[in-house]
Amino acid sequence: MSLILTDVSLTYADGDDRVLALDNVTLDVPAGTVTAVVGPSGSGKSSLLAVAATLIAPDSGTVVIDGVATSGLSRARLAELRRRTIGIVFQQSNLVPSLTAVEQLQVMAWIDGRSTREARSRAMSLLESVGMADHADRRPHALSGGQRQRVNIARALMNEPNVLLVDEPTSALDQERGEEIVELVTRLSRERHTATVLVTHDRSLLGAADRVAEVHDGRLSTVPSPPPLTPSLPQ
């Protein structure tokens, strides 16, 4: 499965005028690959993620997620598509302060109507995959920034999405922790066969991606990928 945007344009109202956020953007992200998206502030990166996540409908063009064209879908159907097909890793972890790491994941399954026993088993498996199983019963205040981001990633994968959208996951981390998080996202994307879009401001991390795209003034272009990062996580 994959994420495909074709000739997507998006404008925002600005007083009596409209501002162009995306200009005929086409992007094809195959399953099991990571496409990194870079660009200056205000270039359209966030708009691209919002459209891919079906949070905003484009003015024109098509968005196809897991073989489903999103245009014309009802709000309820879009919400179901997001819940079951799209995982989102936010820039800030946004973990619920009162919930433990494992509960952060379990609540996602509860929202989707899955059984409690199955949810805990899957949550623990995901925490193990991101190196957080030993911290399953800790609440966010007892975790480091990198640990919270690992839980954030595991939570995004809880409902087995086919598309993973990752927004600046390293912005609050130092270089070493940032590299670990990007390598983790890359590894999990390949293992779980997700079509992943990774928005980042740090060009030194682009070597982990399969492809790199750059946004300028709402236009998207592919650029040569830098050499791969030297792995620092156990495979």
Automatic annotation (TrEMBL):
Keywords assigned by UniProt, alphabetized: ATP-binding, Hydrolase, Nucleotide-binding, Transport
Entry keyword Transport: yes
GO molecular function: ATP binding; ATP hydrolysis activity; transmembrane transporter activity
Keyword Aminoacyl-tRNA synthetase: no
Lineage: superkingdom: Bacteria
Domain ABC transporter residue range list: 3-233
Coiled-coil stretches noted in the UniProt entry, renumbered to this chain: none
GO cellular component: plasma membrane
EC numbers for this chain: 3.6.3.-
PANTHER family linked to this entry: ABC TRANSPORTER RELATED (PTHR24220:SF685), IMPORT ATP-BINDING PROTEIN (PTHR24220)
The name this protein goes by in its record: ABC transporter ATPase
